Amino acid sequence: MIAALAVLWWGMFLVSPMHLEGTMCTVSNGLPLVLGALALGIIATIGGIVMGSAPWAVVVGSPGVVTVLLVIVFPCSLVPVIALPALSLCALVGMIPLVRDYVEPDR
What we know:
Layout: H1 2-14, E1 16-19, E2 25-28, H2 31-51, H3 54-73, H4 79-103
Antiparallel strand pairs: 1-2
């Protein structure tokens, strides 16, 4: 998961906003960002199936999905750059009790 988050972060900082005609804005170099989000989605899906835990899928997959959506909605803004550290921290911290409950279910 940490490797997928690293790819997502790398992709976030490679994204280049481009202004088009007038006030239109788009991004280029978004492939690493999408690859990081897909990697988190795959980890979330496999972990959710293996552990039988829907919260795992939500906690692990949310940084990728939300970051890509924020880049789509706010392509020339700092909102995705500001949100990514908070989302990543929430995912890493939220993963700890889920893994603990999976390893020690009677706790």
